[in-house]
Amino acid sequence: MKKTIFILITLLLVPLAFALEATTNEETYSLGDKVEITVTGCNSLSFLELYNNEGKLIFVDLGLGDYISIYNSESTNSLGQHTLKLTCNNLIQESNFNINFPLQILASKNRINPGNKIDLLVSGCPGFSALEITNHLSEPVLFSQGISLWGTTYNSESAAEKGNYISKVTCGSNFALQEFCVGDKTLCPEEESQPITPTGAATFEVPPGQTPSCGNNDCEYYETILTCPNDCQCPPEVLDSCIIQYNAEGKPINDQDSDGLTNDYETYLEQKAIEKEATNLFSPENPDTDGDEVPDGNDFCPGTDTQDGTFTLSTGYISLNGCYSGDISHLEGSQSITGPDGCFDNTDYTKLVTSYKYWESIGLSACQTKLK
């Protein structure tokens, strides 16, 4: 009788073990996406842990029974393979998902005259991506393919039609768009070139002017082909090694610190900075050389002085682009206190506007008060 009861209990427990799951709504995400994690199969309290590709615990949650947990990838700026560990009683279930740089396509100009060329840069796809350009009649005029970070040039000498052109890059089921215009200034008004963000696409808008001189047609030592593609091209010294290569497991083989910059290119950037007597900007062995918690490949302000870790992404002094944040104030009761609280809200906005109005009243340019 005891043996029969033991067998019945065992048969009941085995399905519960297989039913325990922590699943995500996608297998791959772009940096900035929210990851929806569904926990099922536990009829008691369960603990959910999330580890980044270095094995560091970056997110925890817990709940009773079935529940949904949301992880905001902006909160840690972590890239690569992530591991979910779900614990219920003595049962443990693990699963993985990936976070990559957002798929993006950037154009060197938003308008070109007929007969001129336009450079296009594609990034954010870990494998093959395809680029197609169509004219305003939806007729294809260029098709190209590449791996990871790559670029191509469209020569408008072949453009029979003037007007707006759409560049579409496709990576698996994901895509991003960029628009440019072929024609004179009458047909194509001068505007800041911005990626179009269609529903369902993961795109990343490069904020203009985040580095002190991005857009002056000179690639400064603190700018890269990712943060300032309008100024920077892959240098001749490392022309054949700017593109990240991946192995069969999807892991980079020429980007040892997985920060989005290849080993050779980052070594070149490091040496270029040293020649300018600048240190702590780039390193092929450190994904976050300046320690502000923003990967080097996504850092528009490399070499940030974090004051021994005081100014970082998690403390609110650094924004996702690696520059000093607008998060400068918080509420204590009803009083606005100088100092970040991890978010940018109306308290920060009010204090910034007040400051700008004061600077304006005394004839001082806000640019003279910038932190970096």
Give a structural overview.
With about 375 residues, this protein is α+β, with helices and mostly antiparallel strands. It folds into four domains: about 1-100, Macroglobulin (MG2) domain (Immunoglobulin-like, Sandwich), CATH 2.60.40; about 100-205, Immunoglobulin-like (Sandwich); about 210-305; about 330-370, no CATH class. About 15% of the residues lie in helices and about 30% in strands. The protein has helices at about 1-20, 265-275, 345-360, and strands at about 20-25, 30, 35-40, 45-50, 55-65, 65-70, 80-90, 90-100, 105, 110, 115-125, 130-135, 140-145, 150-155, 165-170, 175-180, 195, 330, 335-340. Strands 10, 12, 13, 15, 16 and 17 form a six-stranded mixed sheet that branches. Strand 4 (about 45-50) and strand 5 (about 55-65) form a beta hairpin. The longest helix is centred in the N-terminal third of the chain and has 18 residues, at about 1-20. It starts with a helix and ends in an 11-residue tail after the last helix.
List key phrases describing it.
372 residues, alpha+beta, Immunoglobulin-like, 4 domains, 6-stranded mixed beta sheet, 5-stranded mixed beta sheet, 19 strands, globular, disordered N terminus, disordered C terminus
